[in-house]
Design goal:
Layout lengths: L9 E5 L11 H19 L3 E5 L16 E3 L2 E4 L5 H17 L3 E4 L12 E3 L4 E5 L5 H10 L5 E5 L11 E5 L2 E5 L2 H13 L5 E5 L8 E3 L2 E5 L5 H10 L4 E4 L2 H4 L10 E3 L3
Parallel strand pairs: 1-2, 4-5, 7-8, 10-11, 13-14
Antiparallel strand pairs: 1-15, 3-4, 6-7, 9-10, 12-13
Length: 266
């Protein structure tokens, strides 16, 4: 392929107004602190941060994962399911087209449902979890937008809301997988349908399965949040790692992948 997998130049994120006072809600204050550290860490990994300002409120204004799928110079926008999503999409379109030179494709099929938290891109192919928020028509829209990559719908196990809560990429061709019964069932389906072969890294805590691999470094949650999985990362990963507290933000998202759109500028 003519691009480097998992290497990015920019991170598109939601802007939080610095002057905004901390509230009397401890969870929101913790979420703000965790988000600030998340952005600092992305900068340290040589990503240029582009902040998108919207009228949405924190933390809804920083959860970008479901609102767009970005890959290979294209941004695919699913049909918005709320006025907040529509506001953020409008702001994103301007940034992605004008600042980052991306082609924007909007899903036109009224039957198509697609959420980025159900879309796993391995660097070689797409898997789309068929859930309440993503359906076969949504997977077809994704396949049309990115015809150079195989795209496979995966039926999720009962009780699973988002595929990427249970799966993410922990490195080149390394699938990070939760050890739960549901995750094991879905892994069998992925392995059966996959066009390519992947190593698997199985982590005991479900909350550890969503990590972020960017520019040669794996970002995963901190030892106090995932003590057993932290040991697995230490033992199995032989390249750069960084850990981060994400407990408050995890309550409103599928995990570490949710708060930025990683972009490689064409």
């Amino acid at each position: 392929m003519d691009f480097k997998m998992h290497e990015y130049t920019h991170a598109v994120v939601g802007k939080v107004i610095p002057a905004l006072k901390l509230t009397d809600r401890a969870d929101l204050n913790d979420a703000r602190r965790q988000y600030d550290y998340y952005l600092r860490l992305l900068k340290e990994l040589n990503l240029e941060i582009i902040e998108v300002e919207t009228d949405a409120y924190f933390p809804e204004n920083i959860i970008f994962e479901d609102i767009a799928i970005v890959c290979h110079g294209i941004m695919l926008l699913p049909r918005p399911i709320s006025s907040t999503e529509e506001i953020i999409m409008t702001a994103l379109k301007e940034v992605m087209q004008n600042e980052l030179g991306h082609t924007v494709i909007e899903v036109s099929d009224p039957e198509a449902k697609l959420a980025g938290s159900d879309v796993l891109f391995t660097g070689r192919e797409f898997f789309v979890g068929i859930t309440e928020t993503s359906n076969e028509a949504g997977a077809s829209a994704l396949a049309e937008a990115f015809p150079e990559f195989p795209c496979t719908p995966i039926k999720v196990s009962q009780g699973v809301r988002h595929l990427k809560k249970y799966f993410s990429m922990a490195g080149p061709d390394i699938l990070c997988v939760a050890s739960s019964k549901e995750a094991k069932e879905m892994l069998k389906r992925i392995e059966r349908e996959a066009t390519f072969t992947y190593q698997t890294l199985t982590v005991p805590e479900v909350g550890a399965a969503n990590c972020l691999y960017v520019n040669g470094t794996l970002i995963h949650r901190a030892i106090e949040e995932i003590p057993e999985s932290f040991k697995v990362f230490c033992e199995r990963i032989d390249f750069a790692r960084r850990s981060i507290c994400f407990s408050s933000l995890a309550k409103v998202s599928s995990g570490l992948t949710a708060c930025c759109l990683l972009v490689r500028k064409p």
